[in-house]
Amino acid sequence: MLIINNLSTAYGNIKAIDDISFKAETGKITTIIGANGAGKSTLLRSITALEKPSSGSITWEGVELIGQSTENIIRSGISHVPEGHAVISQLSVEENISIGSLFRARKHKQDVKDALTDVYELFPRLKERRTQMAGSLSGGERQMLAISRALVSRPKLLLLDEPSLGLAPLIVEQIIQTINDLCRRTGLTVLLVEQNANTALGVADHGVLLALGKLIADRPASELRSDTSLRAAYLGY
Length: 237
Hints:
Blueprint: E1 2-11, E2 14-24, E3 29-33, H1 40-47, E4 55-60, E5 63-64, H2 70-75, E6 78-81, H3 93-99, H4 109-122, H5 124-128, H6 139-151, E7 157-161, H7 169-186, E8 189-194, H8 197-203, E9 206-211, E10 214-220, H9 221-226, H10 228-235
Parallel strand pairs: 3-8, 3-9, 6-7, 7-8
Antiparallel strand pairs: 1-2, 1-4, 4-5, 9-10
Helix pairs in contact: 3-6
Keywords: Amino-acid transport, ATP-binding, Nucleotide-binding, Transport
Family: Belongs to the ABC transporter superfamily.
Domain ABC transporter: 2-237
């Protein structure tokens, strides 16, 4: 279980995350929703030590993450897919995916091969393009590649930041459903950051609504999805 307790992260005098607390249950999809500037991406970056929280605690499986290096956090079973379909354009699809296995390769060489097979089964299009340069892929294919690179490390917790950003609805549906199926089949815990609240709440078990860094609601996703007053006030639909 991931437990966020009284967490604050600031940029100078501005609190991007302001004293928030919630839990992400093991084997479930928890979505973090809110408008631009709500603090969603800062939250994920705080979990993986890309940003330094000013106060509070982040525990994963009972271990405090604040104060640890990003490398140690990844080794603890956490993978982070940042927004923007980030890939290394000059490397092939397979080389990009293999980068995600660097922390495991020495001790689990056979498992790395198995993990590569598994991600190709999740995203067959990538297998067809495994020798292509990543820079030649479409936006949807790049997002599949970024997710595959995270999954090849065999994470127990996957942090997904705006996977729908800039993608066609059909591609978004495919990617989100693939993650949902993986979660239900393997027990993967997912923390999904999304501006498209309707899509996120439709697949998630639990929802956390942020506004200007503050926690507004922490409820089952179905309850948040049906709360028209919250949607109108904070999500604009």
